[in-house]
Amino acid sequence: MSKMGENGAANYYQRAALAPTEASLELGVQHGASKCFDDDGRLKRTGTVWTSSSHIITAVIGSGVLSLAWAIGQLGWVAGPVVMLLFSFVTYYTSALLSDCYRSGDPLTGKRNYTYMDAVRANLNGLKVQICGFLQYLNIVGVAIGYTIAASISMVAIKRSNCFHKNGDDSPCRVNSNPYMIMFGVAEIFLSQIPDFDQISWLSILAAIMSFTYSSIGLALGIVQVIQNGGIKGSLTGISIGTVTAMDKIWRSLQAFGDIAFAYSYSIILIEIQDTIKAPPPSEAKVMKRATVISVAVTTVFYMLCGCMGYAAFGDLAPGNLLTGFGFYNPYWLLDIANAAIVVHLVGAYQVYCQPLFAFIEKWAQRTWPKSEFITKEIQVPITSGRTYRLNLFRLTWRSMFVVVSTVVSMLMPFFNDVVGFLGAIGFWPLTVYFPVEMYIVQKKVPKWSTRWVCLQMLSLACLIITVASAAGSIAGVVSDLKVYKPFQS
Known about the structure:
The protein is mainly alpha-helical. It contains 17 helices and 4 strands.
């Protein structure tokens, strides 16, 4: 836990609205007179390359890893791995560009941009700031819904697995996912009261460990399945026409691009993660780039292993959720462990993604109604001797309502695979590619029509085409799901 949490200091994001000197004086310490503060007057950041890597891994190795076997199944042994490698390179490259935008000007002493929107505001015009904010927070809302759906699927899988084991393979074992979505929502209401990003490192590290756990189990089961099959399934071009129609083949291939994009997406919270890194030297950008290299390399290896081994095990019948492809039978206990690890991971990943949205709304409310005690007052709640929790009624109310609404929407639209593809599609180009590229061009003063400028614009255009195509494929999938859809039933 950070020093901020240990000392029971005031809400980190509430201080964002205060001038550095005011923030220091509020704690009774003259600005610059204590080692407890950074150059901007905020409480000293304690993040390292390893905590940053854990945040990224928690965000990246999410439920998206489970759909990669299906995605490779649509593209085949040639295009599937190639597309995955391309997305990993693009993610790393644009993340490196974005990390250079954390400080405006000098990378060691320049003005800090605390959020993705702050970075856009410092480099681009007002309209682009508004578009960025809308897309970023819409994507975060979508991720919250997607993670709620994915967690409920894993909890239902545990329930059905135990039911089959107890009552026999012929038992219907029908399970409604709605109660499990509600359970997940209740847990998130409590965890959402953690005031800010800097205080969830422990949850992020736990979630990262869980992601390795279920990915490893999925990989091991895939290897065992390949051995049982007596060989590798699948084809060079993916699912064949005949198994599906030609049009379905096109739509599913496009949706696979969206699934892979979603599996790599974390740029929307990169600046917020970078803002937890301790002050230079070295610069926060250098630390963030090292964390990005580590994280993207690790996740790509896991993605390749899980996606390719899942496709090798199931071939054209690779499921949208890898773990459900192994059925609900023996080793049922191992599948239960994997699904439980998914749930714990998603509990943490939900917080990693949602904290920037929470902070944005709370800072906006503080600026709009600075004299409202409901919004600004914090109540001291004793936890242990010498430690207190600062309860803010606005934070309690609005964050709880957000979780409730996202849970209800999840109950209305339980389409895991198509939701994953659509989220990946709409968020990939603007947030992972376009804004980082445009900000980098402005910050580094890249001359128009220079070789570097043309290459960056070509990268952006190619990713835009992929985004539009992926979104179309995912929408087609959602339309297909709606034909047999019944609200609040699963």
